[in-house]
Design brief:
Layout (H helix, E strand, L loop, with lengths): L1 H18 L5 H13 L16 E9 L6 E10 L4 E5 L6 H8 L11 E4 L2 E2 L5 H7 E4 L10 H6 L7 H10 L3 H5 L18 H15 L3 E5 L7 H15 L3 E5 L3 H6 L2 E6 L2 E6 L1 H7 L2 H11 L6 H7 L2
Helix pairs in contact: 1-2, 6-8, 8-9, 11-12
The structure holds adenosine-5'-triphosphate (ATP).
Protein name: ABC transporter ATP-binding protein/permease
Subcellular location: Cell membrane
Amino acid sequence: MIQLYVPLNFLGVIYRELKQGLADLDKMFVLLEREREVADAPGARPLAVTQGRVRFENVSFAYESGGRPILHDLSFEIPPGRTVAVVGPSGAGKSTLARLLYRFYDVPAGAGRITVDGQDIREVTQASLRAAIGIVPQDTVLFNDTVAYNIGYGRPSATPAEIEGAARSAHIHDFIAGTPQGYATMVGERGLKLSGGEKQRVAIARTLLKNPPILIFDEATSALDSANERAIQAELQSAARGKTALVIAHRLSTVVDAHEIVVLEHGRVAERGSHAALLAHGGVYARMWQLQHAQGGAEGVAAHWAQSP
Ligand code: ATP
């Protein structure tokens, strides 16, 4: 049954992608490529989430076998219900952590492991792992379908009232209600075009509806106006309450509140600790923080990492 389910589920993904037309072919190949990277191990069991403790244990990773190493012997833990923020310069490997946790790629044998409540994620079914994790990526891909479908995708059994509730919590309801066909409005390539911030709110609504115990947020670096940025920040924080969250952080508010901040440089942990501890340490994080304050900027850490030598 499980063996049958996986390919059918996979075909469903391809079908949905195909529905988006030729313009999305590139994306489909990317998806196929990713799907080929991981397969359920023979006899894989479903993941049993008890507390939601996530651990990266001595993880090393390269995208191609024998290729350029991206992560080097990386270890950190996200305790149940806590948020760990990962910061660092562009290319440091931050998004790679998210891709590995969601199993777009597998950590190779002998190169460490990622566990959820003690279970190696390579040994559980991909479907059960992904059911336990909600992702809000930087660039949300919307299906060429209705707004309701795009939000309800988080939980296909959701009622229209539940979809509207999630949209309200993600502060996108008023926008949707203002469109001519409301929740029946088509979005995507051939429908209503949404801004980056609106798309991210749809992804947040989708995740709220899914209500998974583990969250991955890849905060957008793109220039949202600051009111939008603050609103999205607040939504993300309320969605993360009581959940285990891995946040690829570009904004100081996320970083300040995180249980632990992991400063990643060239795929290695350069520094780690709470915001206060890192400031007291007076290292690279403290310098970035001071630089930001000296410039009076509140736009986020990402730009400052980018400027660092
Ligand atoms: P940013 O802040 O710019 O998003 P990041 O820290 O999230 O950067 P990653 O996206 O994790 O960085 O990428 C880490 C390194 O891995 C980069 O050098 C990137 O070029 C490389 N990389 C990312 N994806 C792939 C891929 N699919 N194949 C090969 N190399 C890749």
